[in-house]
């Protein structure tokens, strides 16, 4: 199934915003990118492989369309994804 | 209401928002930029916020604080560059009796520090900088459902 | 320092007394004159203090609060006639971390209310007055060694 | 002994300050008075009998020379005594 979906063109365009350490390591604050990842976790691992993010996914949180989300959440076309490093407000 | 501000926080204006004739108690918390953190001399810092979610989560926390039977609660958090002694965050709470105002004010600032997507980069005396809490890759506590 | 004031409390001046570069947290408590108490509509009130002992006992409480590892703590209490909404008392505390400032600030106001010889006479909508806590002859909790 | 002391002139002059309800019931804020009472408790009971104070000594506190004191404390010449109704600061 997965292979079929992939072949059928599972690719989608999503927007990713970066903050704090991730912004520093990526070198930019926001980008639109094409991905075949089906969940936000897969997307993080894909980007981590590409940009060498030092933070493990288990030490950060993730937001999908400006709401906190599970790592297992599925990605859809035009989604906005934000990876959230450990916060330090206050 | 929870809000972010790139300018100095107006403490008097914020306080006036919780003033009501039923209020017998007022508790305020202010976070100030210290000159040291974990043994290092801090010379300045910068706050960065994921604004859309920070405002949403901050307001959720203020609503949750209503469980303490308070009258009013507000919070402003700074963004941008701050100097030693600057106010980074202010929480104000009013209630009929004091116990509730203390509990609610402490609850609000604790939850903000745990859950609101705001990050702090410290600059040290030697010129180096560090994103607080990121260096050691601590497990985050903010509503992460991983 | 604990002091009594027959004039409106200058909140900014008091706050500036606890400001230090080591301080990361500031907690303030203010007691405001409410428009009601125990179901009666209050139109105004008056505080009377036994000054010599009040100042002594208030300062003792501020010293005791040092056990919470705070940096600085001050308190001013009003005397004389106050209107609805007026500030009756203000406690300010600074510390390196917030937990200590909250605990110390609440400790100070709780002890002041229990131990410092200050009395409150409320005036009600019908013109009658009452010395709060005296009407029913409650057992006092302030260091009485009877 | 007590009788002898009394006969020998146990009387002393003390200053009493009144606050709040006690001031109201006494009708003045401070007075100097002569007393044969030997403790602050005896003095309160003496004055209560004279002025009809409504507060029981067990519901109030007492200060001797601007320090909280035990009710059993002895009175000396020129002492300053303050009876302290239930406080209500804050």
Number of domains of chain B: 1
Shape of chain A: globular
Structural class of chain A: alpha+beta
Radius of gyration of chain A, rounded?
A: 13 Å
User: What do we call the CATH homologous superfamily of chain A?
Assistant: Beta-grasp domain
- Mean pLDDT metric of chain B: 92
The share of residues in extended strands of chain B comes to 35-45%
Give the helix tally of chain B.
3
Please explain how this structure is put together.
- The complex is a heterotetramer, with 2 copies of chain A (90 residues) and 2 copies of chain B (146 residues).
- With 90 residues, chain A is of the alpha+beta class.
- Helices cover 28% and strands 27% of the residues of chain A.
- Chain A has helices spanning 2-7, 20-26, 40-51; strands at residues 12-17, 30-35, 61-64, 67-69, 80-84.
- The N and C termini of chain A lie far apart (47 Å).
- Chain B has 146 residues and is of the alpha+beta class.
- Chain B has one domain: Aldehyde Oxidoreductase, domain 3 (Alpha-Beta Complex).
- Helix content of chain B is 26%, strand content 37%.
- Chain B is built from 3 helices and 9 strands.
- In chain B, strand 3 and strand 4 form a beta hairpin.
- In chain B, helix 2 (51-64) packs antiparallel against helix 3.
- Chains in contact: A-B, B-C, C-D.
- Chain C binds chain D through residues 31, 47-50, 52-54, 56-57, 77, 88-89, 109, 112-121, 131-134, 137-140, 142-146, and chain D through 17, 19-21, 23-24, 54-63, 66-71, 82, 84-90.
């Amino acid at each position: 199934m997965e292979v079929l979906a992939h072949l059928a063109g599972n690719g989608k365009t999503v927007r990713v915003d970066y903050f704090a350490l991730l912004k520093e390591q990526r070198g930019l604050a926001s980008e639109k990118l094409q991905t075949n990842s089906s969940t936000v976790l897969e997307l993080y691992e894909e980007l981590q492989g590409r940009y060498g993010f030092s933070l493990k996914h288990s030490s950060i949180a993730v937001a999908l369309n400006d709401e906190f989300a599970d790592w297992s959440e599925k990605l859809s076309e035009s989604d906005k994804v934000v990876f959230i490093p450990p916060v330090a407000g206050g | 209401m929870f809000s972010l501000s790139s300018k100095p926080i107006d403490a008097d204006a914020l306080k006036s928002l919780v003033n009501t004739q039923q209020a017998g108690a007022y508790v305020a918390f202010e976070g100030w930029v210290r000159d040291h953190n974990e043994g290092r001399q801090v010379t300045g810092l910068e706050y960065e916020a994921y604004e859309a979610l920070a405002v949403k989560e901050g307001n959720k926390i203020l609503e949750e604080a209503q469980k303490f039977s308070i009258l009013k609660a507000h919070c402003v958090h700074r963004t941008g560059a701050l100097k030693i002694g600057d106010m980074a965050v202010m929480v104000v709470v009013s209630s009929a009796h004091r116990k509730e105002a203390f509990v609610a004010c402490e609850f609000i600032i604790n939850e903000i520090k745990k859950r609101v997507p705001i990050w702090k980069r410290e600059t040290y005396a030697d010129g180096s900088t560090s994103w607080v809490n990121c260096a050691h890759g601590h497990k985050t506590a903010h509503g992460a459902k991983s």
